[in-house]
Amino acid sequence: MVARKRKRAAREAGESLPSPPGYSAIPIKFSEKQQASHYLYVREHRVREGTKSAWPQQRTLFVLNVPPYCTEECLSRLLSPCGSIQSVELQEKPDLAESPKEPTSKFFHPKPVPGFQVAHVVFRKPGAVSAALALRGPLLVSTESHPVKTGVQKWISEYADSVLDPEALRVEVDTFMEAYDKKIAEEEAKAKEEEGVPDEEGWVKVTRRGRRSVLPRTEAASLRVLEREKRKRARKELLNFYAWQPRESKMEHLAQLRRKFEEDKQRIELMRAQRKFRPY
Amino acid sequence: AGAGPGVMGPAPPGAAGDPEVSEPEVMEPTLEGTGEEGKKVSSKKRTLAGSPVEGLLQPVKLSRAELYKEPTNEELNRLRETESLFHSSLLRLQLEELLKEVRLSEKKKKRIDAFLREINQRILKVPSIPEIEADRQTWLKLGSSPLQQCFTVKGRFRFLPPVQVMVVGSYLLGTCIRPDINVDVALTMPREILQDKDGLNQRYFRKRALYLAHLAHHLAQDPLFGSVRFSYSGGCHLKPSLLLRPQGKDEHLVTVRLHPCPPPDFFRPCRLLPTKNNVRSAWYRGQSPPGDEPPTPHYNTWVLQDTALESHVQLLSAVLGLSPGLKDGVALLKVWLRQRELDKGLGGFSGFLISMLVTFLVSTRKIHTTMSGYQVLRSVLQFLATTDLTVNGISLCLSSDPSLPALADFHQAFPVVFLDSSGYLNLCADVTASTYHQVQHEARLSMALLDSKADDGFQLLLMTPKPMIRAFDHILHLRPLSRLQAACHRLKLWPELQDHGGDYVTAALGPLTTLLEQGLGSRLHLLAHSRPPVPEWDISQDPPKHRDTGALTLGLLLRPEGLTSVLEMGPEADQPEAADFRQFWGSRSELRRFQDGTIREAVVWEAASMAQKRLIPQQVVTHLLALHADIPDTCVHYVGGFLDALIQGLKETSSTGEEALAAAVRCYDDLSRLLWGLEGLPLTVSAVQGIHPVLRYTEVFPPTPVWPAYSFYQRLRERASLVPRPDKPCPAYVEPMTVVCHLEGSGQWPQDAEAVRRVRAAFQLRLAEILMQQHGLQCRTTATHTDVLKDGFVFRVRVAYQREPQILREMRSPEGMISLRDTPASLRLERDTKQLPLLTSALHGLQQQHPAFSGVARLAKRWVRAQLLGEGFSNESLDLVAAALFLQPEPFFPPSSPQVGFLRFLYLVSTFDWKNSPLIVNLNSELTVEEQVEIHSSFLAARAQLPVMVIITPQDRKSSLWTQDGPSAQILQQLMVLAAEALPILEKQLMDPWGPGDIRTVFRPPLDIYDVLIHLSPRHIPRHRQAVDSPAASFCRGLFSEPRPSLLMPVLGYDPPQFYLAQLREAFGDLALFFYDQHGGQVIGVLWKPTSFQPQPFKASSTKGRMVVSQGGELVMVPNVEAILEDFAILGEGLVQNVEARSERWAV
Known about the structure:
The complex is a heterodimer of chains A (280) and B (1148).
Chain A: H1 2-13, E1 24-29, E2 38-44, E3 60-66, H2 72-79, E4 85-91, E5 117-123, H3 127-133, E6 139-140, H4 151-162, H5 166-194, H6 219-236, H7 244-273
Parallel strand pairs in A: 1-6
Antiparallel strand pairs in A: 1-2, 2-3, 3-5, 4-5
Chain B: H1 64-67, H2 73-85, H3 89-102, H4 106-125, E1 129-133, H5 136-142, E2 156-159, E3 164-168, H6 170-173, E4 182-188, H7 203-219, E5 225-232, E6 240-246, E7 255-261, H8 281-284, H9 297-320, H10 324-339, H11 351-363, H12 373-386, E8 394-395, H13 407-413, E9 418-419, H14 433-451, H15 457-463, H16 468-471, E10 474-478, H17 483-490, H18 494-499, H19 504-520, E11 524-530, E12 537-538, E13 552-558, E14 567-572, H20 577-585, E15 590-593, E16 599-604, H21 610-614, H22 616-629, E17 636-639, H23 658-676, E18 685-690, E19 713-716, E20 721-724, E21 737-743, H24 753-775, E22 778-781, E23 786-790, E24 793-800, H25 804-809, E25 810-812, E26 818-820, H26 824-849, H27 853-866, H28 875-887, H29 898-911, E27 919-920, H30 929-941, E28 951-952, H31 969-991, E29 1012-1016, H32 1056-1068, E30 1072-1075, E31 1083-1088, E32 1106-1111, E33 1114-1119, H33 1121-1131, E34 1136-1141
Parallel strand pairs in B: 4-7, 8-9, 21-24, 27-28
Antiparallel strand pairs in B: 1-2, 3-4, 5-6, 5-12, 6-7, 10-13, 10-17, 11-13, 14-16, 15-16, 18-21, 19-20, 22-23, 23-24, 25-26, 29-31, 29-34, 30-31, 32-33
Helix pairs in contact in B: 9-11, 10-11, 10-12, 12-14, 17-19, 19-22, 27-28, 27-29, 29-31
């Protein structure tokens, strides 16, 4: 215990914290009371030439290891001294697609329980990124002026939030369905328009809306057809017609027995190894 | 050598030393921690098997050439033999292996033979003593007395070396089985020792004892013997025998038992008929009876047994001698008997009896000498199962001499009759009717098992021990045994005492079992008793008395259908039988008028709940024993309901929750009726199905109606809901019971997953609206469900659309072909709306068939969760394991009490070979034997892809749905270890005649294996009172005890420890495992994952909770343990009392 304390003291006194190449480390604590701190590993957001990224180059800070109690608001408050912030986006893991999330419905996509996350912080000005990289910390997530709820307090407020307003839900459902119905109607109209009209090469697309019903284009249907064919072929085959057929079936039986015997032997071997034959 | 998936089971001996083996996530198994007693943890540690291949069956690969080569004659013969003589080749191999295991090796046989030769010489050299008066002084001179009372014997005694020393019994026949090799040696006493009329008044037995005492006195000084002790041969206290064991390392190799016997033709058999008296009342009781002397059939038999030793061995060797099949059969039958504890003590169904039975079957041509061991086993079981020797005795005697006694005479004197070849000796003289019925019952069960052609018949038939506590629903101990002496007097058993030479335990046994069988009537399936073998004793000590043999233990196998009635209906009051009924039941019998107008004698037992009804046998037994046998209830220790305490609700002592569950199910039935009849939904309801454990009777603590006290909560008036208040303790935990509501099919549903969800939400809203309008039920809606408050119970109704899983599965290939692929979402939905309702209704049905199912499943779950392993096992998987105990009870009978079911659960879990076999739970017996074989083989082929624990049901034949998400190999292994530790502890407690002690011992989890313990504050544990050691006081949880109408929805599913655990697992799941008992656990056990603590190079994707340090000039990442420990406290602010880091394993 003593050794560990000394180590920590040494770490805190030391000028530069160890950090992986390209990153700098910023200690972060929940509040004043905590002794040990986690470390945010931050670097400028860069992507290889040619790949698209939704986050603006040079203005975006990429943050690793954001503790679970640190929300987007917290992070934005903690980093705002470096420059004004445009947006903060928390993700579960560094995503290769790297696109900001679409706004989702709180009714149909409830927020998952947070763990350690990664963040993309977009500043308004490019200079703020280097200011952030030079931060010394330790950052405090919860302060007296901005307390962060955890534990029982947090669960109670989450519970209160989970009691939904049915009216809001109804409104959301209605708007979604309206849009959906419109989309379907459009598609249908389009399909009707194309019905029976040959394309430039003269092919006519057969749809299920045609006069005669056709086989649906599903995998199950095609498997069914194959199966039927196979059965038909099997029915036609003659058994015990050629001399080799009974001989072969006898051999097959013997092989079956042998295989079974081998299996049993293996089983016995295993049971013997586990001393399964000691009755008591 | 990391433990791969699917690896468990004890390691082969070589692997234990490998340091790497126990590395990843392995929990060190410990002895069952008893918490308070601070018992030392055993150092017994097991490690996981070394490589994934070890101990795992592989699909057999044989080359084509090998499979299709020409068969040799020998091979064909063997194959043919297997087909005709054995059930399958596997069974044949298994039996061969077993016989190899129990047979005596040639090497040991040689050593034993040498020892026997030595003994022979020593015995013949024992010096003679001149004739003396056989009085008290003689005994004292010899320094030891193998008889309980050393009366003066009329006549004189002298010692002369035996005229013949002869090995008799199984050793000579080659049918003795290991361990405990006994060699019986008969010493024929010279005629000079005995006098005429020695058959009378125990004179022969006393001289026999003197003879042995003298032998013992001399042999004890011989350095050849490691120990020289006495024991009762066959448990008969008049017939001691001398046990000799070799010196040194061979001490446990063999026990030689010396039985003195009279010279041939010394006793006239006609004087020893079952109708004759050979113990005079004047001598035994000091007074003559008013009428004739009572016959002494048992006494006569014991004398006859000594005279027949030689003829029996000759007969047996003539029959068994040349036929290896018969010998195999006898050995197998002995194993069979021993596993069932039938061969113990006086009146046990011994190996000798079974050999004689085989001989009998050979003589009646039921068995042929060319039969295989398996066939002999089968024929004997068949014979036992179908014949009743208590009614129709059998005889080996072929002669039709009219002077021989009639079978009827024997039936008069003995419950079971099987005469030897002389026609005078009943071999089953000491076997009681209940022992014989137990043998019959076992034989019937075994035959059913063999006929079912199950694959693991061998295992169940011959390898599974059936100790009494695990075989019988209820057990009762009568202690102290001295009380039976009074019982004998009360039952007027003086002639029997005279016959048994004062052995009041044996004398009382028969009448007592008959009494109880009659009293328990329709509640009883089988009553059995165990006779613990009398321990052997040193020759310098006094022999144990009758009362020293521990307790008399009776086992009751109950009949579930008879258990529900609280009434014993007697005859009508004016019938003559009414007097008998009154006499039998004593003061409990009263006159009652019944609905059909008759007035009858009847006995009514007080029992309101199922739990109390299950214990009516206890009332019956104590009442009858006190009334008829003068045995007060303090002397009856009834073991049947001790474990009930663990599934009893709060402040509830009379019920184990079956009634509360039934009340919830009734409320659910009402609700489903309402849903069926709803008007105004765009589509009508086509089916309502429950999926919550309550609705299949397996919720450990059944829900109670809630009546919230508003002042305890914050009120959200506009949403008609209550919310917990931060300044109050956590409110009571209310778990909504989930119900699936299927709607009729319609073409109007959209064909897009997102749109379907919106339409479903619209249905949920509409449902709530209508329920509120039409039935005034309080509802609350989210996008996926509607919570409904009805009569204090809360149900969570989920609307389901049958085609939704299908829609989630649809994938469109680039060519426009629609194919169906399972996705996690579709599987989950299908599980919740399709398989789970089926399972719930199947288990609901099982509960109707077997009323004990609920208790067993709940005890099992309770135990698993109390061991902090509950999160690893899904609710359904444990329910199915419990169901398996009822659906495949072999070799047992389906349990009728939670106690025995729980013991078998522990046994099943600890011994089942999860690695190499699936647990098939044949719900509704839908799977045929062929299908089960098929399942086995496809299981082996797909083993690597399947979860570690595979449970197959008729609805789920391939994938083992309920164990997909766990347990992991390590958790399962830990459970197996804990179960293996708990079982013997619990069985010992229950078999202890003086009380079980602390029954909760095995429910307390071992905490010393965890690296960190997070202690929680009871204030915020809503289920605090459910803890194994229930607190004397807890916090107010904001409920009224009286029904009050509630307009606001109570707080639902609010369980801070669960929220906390979810956060911990999300944040630190990579670094540690968290263990918690959801039923009021006050501590969370944390186990660091050793692999995560290896320093790793920096990777952007795995920085969670880690920090970069420089180690030896290199930058590596290690877990930031100090910060994490502080995070534990931060995340659980208010809930966490303190975080106790206990090991330094994580120090980096």
